[in-house]
Amino acid sequence: MAVAIFGSTGSIGKSTLEVIRCHPDKFKVKALIAKSNINLLERQIKEFNPEYVVVFDHEKSKELQKRLSGHNILSGIDGLLEVVQKPSIDTIVLAMTGTTALEPAIEAIKLQKKICIANKELLVSAGKLITDLAKKYGTALLPIDSEHSALFQCLNGERKKEVSKLILTASGGPFRTFTKQELANVSVKQALEHPKWKMGPKNTIDSSTLMNKGLEVIEAHFLFDMPIDKIEVLVHPQSIVHSMVEFCDQTVMANLSYPTMTIPIRYALSYPERLPSKEKLDFSKHSELTFEPVDFDKFPCLFLALDAVKKGMSYPCYLNAANEILVERFLDGEISWIDIADKLKKLIASHTPQNMLTLESILSVDLEAKKEASKI
Asked: Which of 246, 268, 299 is the last residue of a domain?
């Protein structure tokens, strides 16, 4: 299988390469794509010797080209599209963040490539557009997020009409036991200390506010074509049960595994096969599994996300883009942790919704939200 990794220097990209290292007979890295981290990308190129390389940042691309004269280093959106269009590449791992992945994703769908999704913006900002195109072209969209991978596996072979509820689990993040008073003074350092998962800064902050779970609910709504009132979130601090499906006969099917991203990545890459893994779940070390309801009063970002998808139209796209900028401002020390939700609530209240029918309209709303979130 010939794989192109969009976002190879990020946490998902690195985990994908870890899986490929374990199964060199199954997968070949054909293309590596990064935004600007050329130091790590250079090491990855030397190890995996991809046929194609893209650095989205033009200046960084030129710099890497000087270092690696034997490679043709592409750049920008044109570079991304050129890689997608290569006939020798059959699998696309979308691990890059932001709406930059939208255009390459649409092209990959039209070319009927196998798409492994770890990009939230793809389904949060353009869920209907992407899923409608996937149905039209018969393209597989395989989730890499542990929660959606779990749902995908639990739903495999089941009849949709017999599903009564999708249950996404959340670790609760670093502030699960904090009081509202304590949350008023949390630092960036505290917010970046996730108790279970190692992720990039943006996803880690989203996990601390539970916005990540709100975005995952929106993704699940589109990916599995499930009404929002049939999707629930439960806090599960141990992160062993990755998600569950409740059926009409009141049975619940759960997906459990050791908390590592390599397991859902391996499953998406190898689907419909299952490949051996060393990350064994030892129940003697995880004998207690607990579940709690979400405290929406302490974590209003989750409520805002659920409300946005219920309203529909451009609200999910606007929420996602505005949150991205507010998280950046928090990481830069410009606003407080509580400000993320407070400012987001004000921004959404002032948003004039639009129909999201085209890539152009999605990108327009995304840009509008980012501009307004940078000023509030």
From this structure: 299
CB neighbour list of residue 133: distance below 8 Å, 6 or more residues apart: 106, 109, 110, 139
Does residue 125 fall inside a structural domain?
Answer: yes
Residues 6+ apart with CB under 8 A from 170: 210, 212, 213, 233, 234, 235, 236, 294
Query: Shortest CA distance to 262 belongs to which of 116, 157, 119?
Result: 116
Tokens matching residue 345:
């609530």
Please give the average pLDDT of every successive group of 10 residues along the chain, which has 376 residues: 96 96 96 96 97 96 92 94 97 90 95 93 90 96 96 96 97 93 93 79 92 96 95 96 97 95 96 92 89 96 96 95 97 96 97 88 94 96
Could you say which of 128, 143, 158 is where a domain stops? 143
Bridge pairing between strands 2-6 and 91-94: parallel
Q: Can you give the pLDDT at residue 35? A: 94
For the chain, the domain total comes to 3
Its sign, for the CA torsion 205, 209, 213, 214, is negative
Task: Report the alpha-carbon distance of residue 241 to residue 223 in Å, rounded.
Answer: 20
pLDDT of residue 279: 86
159 and 139 in one domain? Answer: no
Question: CA of 16: how far to CAs of 78, 264, 283, 293, in Å?
Answer: 24, 10, 26, 32
Closest-CA residue to 240 (of 166, 170, 191, 165): 170
Distance CA 183, CA 277 (A): 39
Does residue 77 sit in the same domain as residue 206?
Answer: no
State whether 139 and 183 are in the same domain: no
Q: Quick one: 259 exposed, middle or buried, by C-beta within 10 A (0-12, 13-18, 19+)?
A: middle
* pTM of model > 0.90: yes
Q: What residue spans of 138-210 are helical by DSSP H? A: 146-155, 180-183, 188-191, 201-209
- Cα–Cα distance for residue pair 218/225, rounded to 1 Å: 10
Q: In this predicted structure, what is the pLDDT of residue 348?
A: 97
Reduce the DSSP state of residue 55 to 3 states and report it.
Answer: strand
Determine the pLDDT at residue 120.
82
pLDDT of residue 170: 95
Under a CB-based contact definition with an 8 Å cutoff, are residues 300 and 307 in contact?
no
| DSSP string computed for 244-308 | EEEETTS-EEEEE--S-THHHHHHHHHTTS----S----GGG------B---TTT-HHHHHHHHH
